[in-house]
Design a protein that fits this description.
Elements lengths: L5 H7 L13 E2 L5 E9 L7 E7 L7 E7 L23 H7 L3 E5 L11 H15 L1 H4 L1 E11 L1 H11 L8 E5 L20 H6 L7 H6 L2 H4 L7 E6 L8 H13 L3 E6 L11 H24 L4
Helix pairs in contact: 3-5
Length: about 300
């Protein structure tokens, strides 16, 4: 190809996510506004990454914000999916959060078939930066943001909270997320190059111990971490509950607040738990988000 004319190059490129106009919002029940497929970041050589925005009713300003990260073993998954037990909810879980006055940004990130760690963490950090930049248009307060993720997304939410992002997070909600990619537990073998953890890192964790440690929230726990709510099925056969138990203990030992909620009879994704138990853990997670956002405002971080 010959070099393009500078004006052609400028015009042919899609608008940058930092300045592109926001799409029109769909109107849902309770005044909730939904903006789907909003680009927030374009990694070098990669596809544009998008988020869906669930915003409270018109007129809301300085709303607290949830940055949601989906599960899928870092290899699959959809940004609009909070897990199998919430897929049939009406209203949908994100709409319920927005109806409670808290905005939600459910974000894409690069999967392990596209890029290795730390790419998905960098994408979460980029989403947080974009949400801060566009907060005036969205009517949100970026200083009252809570990261919330399930399974692999819970792992990323925990790492995001522990990497001292700017603006700092007000809290983190982690549903059945892996916290340790380096230690054998359950049926996990860190020497196996075919596990989801190995695909995330680009090699078996035992072969890249420093990378595995950097990708393990358990190894990153520190006293300046924001408050955590860790929710895990007591019978989880895919990600043993010891992941959340040990992360909660490490955070508390370092001096950071951490609440652990084990759900009886629940396997991964709340499989096997009564519907009432799933509703209760969702309600507890939303209560945590709202209480942490109030505390962040009261502490003058707004």
């Amino acid at each position: 190809m010959t070099p393009p004319h500078p004006d052609l190059l400028r015009r042919i490129q899609a608008p940058h996510p930092d300045t592109a106009p926001l799409p029109p919002a769909a109107r849902l029940a309770d005044g909730v506004r939904l903006l789907r497929g909003v680009p927030y970041h374009v990694p070098e050589g990669g596809r544009p990454l998008e988020c869906d925005l669930w915003l409270p009713a018109d007129g809301t300003t300085d709303a607290p914000l949830v940055l949601f990260l989906h599960g899928g073993a870092w290899r699959r998954g959809r940004r609009d999916d909070m897990g199998m037990r919430t897929r049939d909810w009406d209203p949908a879980p994100f709409a319920r959060i927005a109806a409670a006055g808290c905005a939600v940004a459910s974000a894409d990130y690069r999967l392990s078939g596209e890029a290795r760690f730390p790419a998905p963490l960098q994408d979460a950090q980029a989403a947080l930066r974009w949400l801060h930049l566009r907060s005036g248009e969205l009517g949100t307060d970026p200083h009252r943001t809570v990261a919330w993720g399930e399974s692999a997304g819970g792992h990323l939410a925990a790492l995001l909270a522990l990497t001292r992002p700017r603006p700092a997070l007000a809290g983190a909600v982690v549903w059945y997320g892996p916290s340790d990619l380096a230690t054998p537990r359950g049926g996990f073998d860190p020497g196996n190059p075919d596990t989801p953890e190995a695909l995330l890192l680009g090699a078996a964790p035992a072969a890249v111990p420093e990378q595995a440690r950097a990708a393990s929230p358990l190894a990153q726990a520190h006293g300046a971490a924001p408050p955590f709510l860790l929710c895990h099925g007591a019978e989880d056969t895919m990600v043993p509950p010891s992941h959340s138990e040990e992360l909660a203990a490490a955070l508390r030992a370092a001096g950071a607040p951490a609440e652990l909620r084990l759900v009886p009879d629940a396997d991964h994704g709340w499989y096997g738990a009564p519907e009432a138990a799933v509703a209760a853990v969702f309600a507890a997670s939303l209560d945590f988000v709202l209480s942490r956002s109030r505390a962040a405002g009261d502490n003058g971080t707004r």
